[in-house]
Amino acid sequence: MQWSQEEEERAKDKAAENSLVKVQLEDQDKYEKEASKYWNEFYKTHKNNFFKDRNWLFLEFPEILPEKKREQLKTEEKSSESIKINSTSCFPHQDFPGMLEEGEEYWKNNYGEDSTSVQGQIYNKKQAKSVTDNPQGKNCREQLGELESFPGSGAAYRVLEVGCGAGNSVFPILKVLCNTPGTFLYCCDFASGAVELVKSHSSYNSAWCFAFVHDVCDDALPYPFPDEILDVILLVFVLSAIHPDRMQRVVNRLAKLLKPGGMLLFRDYGRYDTSQLRFRKGHCLSENFYVRGDGTRVYFFTKDEVWNMFNLAGLTEVQNLVDRRLQVNRKKKVKMQRVWIQSKFRKPLLLSLSSPEETTKRHPYG
Ligand SMILES: C[S@@+](CC[C@H](N)C(=O)[O-])C[C@H]1O[C@@H](n2cnc3c(N)ncnc32)[C@H](O)[C@@H]1O
């Protein structure tokens, strides 16, 4: 749907109003330093019942699959056109049930409330890092040394999902990749509780997938595989959870992991989405960046910001759009104007052999 100028202005005013009062710097610091703790608490509370499976993934991002598999699925789909596509299939119904809800019921009630007290076990960043799937406490590099290779080294087509949470994208992807020889899926999250949920799921299969605890903001932390081996990186509602000042470095580092020709697929909250306008005063951290009542944070992007960020990381636009939809909850008689940004950026195939200054300009992550 399109917004009228009036609607746009109204949304702008609402956002300006709810960001008049900023969260105190001391508290801002706490939300940054303890970000993984808040997400851990989130998964402790909700387990894997919060987000719906992202069954729309292959419709919006067919690039997740190798070309050959895509063609095969297209042919299969054509030959069974009469079969109704339901929410458990790879190609869901057009109204994207999982995408529209985003667990808003819970967060809606957490926008204006005071932060919930954190109960139970508290993880700090250091602890979260050490809670990997390797209880002896060996780091990924040591593990790799022992294996003389790395997880997924035998695959030809590799996908990484960053900020995988409880696996709502992982399992729809695995369902297809498990029938696609030569493919491998990595997924990571800095909330160790989320990674545990993924690994203990009945559909988790270590022959096709490697889930690991990883904070993408920690530059010093190595990935459990070398650079330039990924065909696809998936960023679904994860960059918005990261402090805007840190996003560029995160994207630069991720771009290094892509093979030349590899794709970065992005979907996240857009500027003036209903969930931004619903925040009450006192939840704004900085322009368009808010903290929810449970301590998790969310940023609302414009498509130009997204373009700049990926472009600065040396990636080229394939798609970059604003997806506006009217979401209607008939039962509760509420209408919500949803705004998402959806983008696809490719790593260029060839690095320029021109002067080093020029190369740095075009590929600052290099
Ligand atoms: C809104 S959830 C989305 C989860 C999942 N991508 C999905 O679509 O269902 C954001 C996820 O990003 C993870 N996250 C936030 N900051 C992160 C960081 N610095 N490193 C790794 N994961 C992070 C959180 O733990 C959380 O699981």
Description:
The protein has helices spanning 5-18, 25-33, 35-46, 57-60, 67-79, 97-101, 104-108, 125-130, 140-147, 170-177, 192-199, 244-257, 274-277, 303-312, 356-362; strands at residues 157-162, 183-189, 209-213, 230-236, 258-269, 284-286, 289-291, 297-299, 316-329, 334-346. Helices cover 35% and strands 20% of the residues. It has a seven-stranded mixed β-sheet. A three-stranded antiparallel β-sheet has the order 6-7-8, with helices on one face. The protein is built from 15 helices and ten strands. The model is unreliable at 82-103, 111-147 and 356-366 (pLDDT under 50). The protein has 366 residues and is an alpha/beta fold. The two termini are 40 Å apart. The chain binds S-adenosylmethionine. S-adenosylmethionine binds next to helix 3.
What is the topological layout?
Layout: H1 5-18, H2 25-33, H3 35-46, H4 57-60, H5 67-79, H6 97-101, H7 104-108, H8 125-130, H9 140-147, E1 157-162, H10 170-177, E2 183-189, H11 192-199, E3 209-213, E4 230-236, H12 244-257, E5 258-269, H13 274-277, E6 284-286, E7 289-291, E8 297-299, H14 303-312, E9 316-329, E10 334-346, H15 356-362
Parallel strand pairs: 1-2, 1-4, 2-3, 4-5
Antiparallel strand pairs: 5-10, 6-7, 7-8, 9-10
Helix pairs in contact: 3-11
SS-derived structural category: alpha/beta
As laid out across the biggest beta sheet, the strand order is 3-2-1-4-5-10-9
Helix proportion range: 25-40%
What is the mean predicted local confidence, pLDDT?
82
- As residue ranges, the low-confidence spans are 82-103, 111-147, 356-366
Tell me the strand percentage band.
Answer: 15-25%
Function: S-adenosyl-L-methionine-dependent methyltransferase.
Domain Methyltransferase type: 160-264
Keywords: Methyltransferase, S-adenosyl-L-methionine, Transferase, tRNA processing
GO molecular function, one term: methyltransferase activity
